[in-house]
Amino acid sequence: MQRIEQATGIILSGGKSTRMGENKAFIQIEGIPIVHRIYALFRELFEEIIIVTNETGLFADLDARVVEDLLPGAGALGGLYTGLFFSSFRHSFCVACDMPFLKSPLIEYLYRKTPGYDVVVPKTRDGLEPLHAYYSQNCIDPARTILAKGSYKIIDIYPLVKVEMVGEDEIHALDPEGESFINVNTPEELLSIQRRKTGIPQ
């Protein structure tokens, strides 16, 4: 694993987890809370880690910069805006707190695409993956503009910045199983993941 110089890893943990019924960040996968899995990977990859949350006390045991949403209730875009606002570096890699199977080779590959772009985002057959993407500081003002219009979708800033989309063939070479984009939103999804990891038929 190669350390990525001059970049921040942002973990968004401000969601309400209403479909799951508990804080998704602390759901255990293979005995480890998801947010701890992400944190351990980010410690090896990035010089700076920022966790955006409305419950800062929950993350006191992690050596990260834990910040509160500047715009509570503004969804993923509000969380991204907050993370970029506090980031020390030009580019930040932003993920949700419920993505347990991130792959460092793919994260490193995406970073190498960042020169000249404000967003580097994977595009799979399921569409864009805005919560597994790099964002530059140039996204701060567009995010503020879109938020002021009452939209909380990250992809709504894309027309306002320079975007590089990374296709499925490139992604597949580094993550053949496509696990990077798996997230845990519901108890059913959690059960499916647990069965997958233990080899139990779905």
Could you characterize what this model shows?
- By secondary structure, this protein is of the alpha/beta class.
- Helices cover 30% and strands 24% of the residues.
- The chain has one domain (4-197): Spore Coat Polysaccharide Biosynthesis Protein SpsA, Chain A (Alpha-Beta Complex).
- It has helices at 34-45, 75-86, 104-111, 140-148, 168-174, 187-198, and strands at 4-13, 28-29, 32-33, 46-53, 65-68, 91-96, 119-124, 127-128, 132-136, 163-166.
- Strands 1, 4, 5, 6, 7, 8, 9 and 10 form an 8-stranded mixed beta sheet that branches.
- A hairpin with a 2-residue loop joins strand 2 and strand 3.
- The longest helix has 12 residues, at 34-45.
- It is globular.
What are the salient characteristics of this protein?
10 strands, Spore Coat Polysaccharide Biosynthesis Protein SpsA, Chain A, 202 residues, 8-stranded mixed β-sheet, alpha/beta, 30% helix, single chain, two-stranded antiparallel ribbon
Give the full name of the CATH homologous superfamily: Spore Coat Polysaccharide Biosynthesis Protein SpsA, Chain A
Q: What number of structural domains do the residues give?
A: 1
Straight-line N-to-C gap: 32 Å
- The strand count comes to 10
What proportion of the residues form beta strands (DSSP E)? 15-25%
SS-derived structural category: alpha/beta
Mean pLDDT: 90
Overall CATH class: Alpha Beta
Write the CATH architecture name.
Alpha-Beta Complex
The protein's oligomeric status is single chain
Order of helices and strands: EEEHEEHEHEEEHEHH
Largest sheet: 8 strands, mixed
CATH topology: Spore Coat Polysaccharide Biosynthesis Protein SpsA, Chain A
Q: How many distinct helices?
A: 6
Give helix % range. Answer: 25-40%
Runs in which pLDDT lies below 50 for 5 or more consecutive residues are: 17-21
- Given the C-alpha coordinates, what overall shape results? globular
The whole-angstrom Rg is 16 Å
